[in-house]
Specification:
The chain has 162 residues and is an alpha+beta fold. It is built from four helices and six strands; from the N terminus they run H-H-H-H-E-E-E-E-E-E. A hairpin with a 5-residue loop joins strand 1 and strand 2.
């Protein structure tokens, strides 16, 4: 009897629960803005930003890799040797120019030219037509360097050693 009472109670409770439950109409809608159109422009901007960020990252990595390779190649023993030799060579050339212009070897050579193996052309001469300073002719040593079609001109004051 108790079992029957318990079963009947369960059936009544379930019937009351199911009778009070109400359903609504099922509707379908796309959740992706590309299909629904809701928030579509913001969705496209987000995708564009993700793609651009990824491409910028790839481009930055390429630049960094190229710089690292260039630095690695410049750090080789032969490149260090070439750089050191070139620096010493230009130091010797500068000394020859000053010795020639100012006559430290006893003979003044007010002009000259040099073409380097890299194609740079260095010309120098004593320039006496630059005007006067306090009524005294101002002389300069003009050095012009032509490299890759670009000319650099440097004027140094000329002071006679006598």
């Amino acid at each position: 009897m108790f079992k029957t009472f318990l079963s009947l109670s369960v059936v009544i409770i379930l019937a009351s629960v199911f009778s009070s439950a109400k359903g609504s109409e099922l509707t379908f809608g796309f959740s992706n803005p590309s299909f629904s159109g809701n928030g579509q422009s913001a969705h496209y901007l987000t995708i564009e930003n993700i793609e651009k960020t990824r491409q910028d990252t790839l481009d930055a990595k390429k630049v960094a890799d190229a710089k690292a390779l260039k630095a690695e190649l410049a750090a080789t023993a032969i490149e260090k040797f070439k750089t050191n030799l070139e620096a010493r060579f230009y130091t010797a050339l500068a000394k020859q120019i000053t010795d020639g212009v100012f006559g430290s070897t006893g003979v003044a050579n007010p002009s000259g030219a040099y073409t380097s193996p890299n194609g740079e052309v260095v010309n120098w001469y004593k320039n006496t037509t630059t005007g006067t300073v306090n009524g005294i002719p101002a002389e300069t040593v003009r050095v012009t360097i032509l490299k890759d079609g670009v000319t650099t001109t440097i004027d140094y004051p000329y002071a006679d050693s006598e």
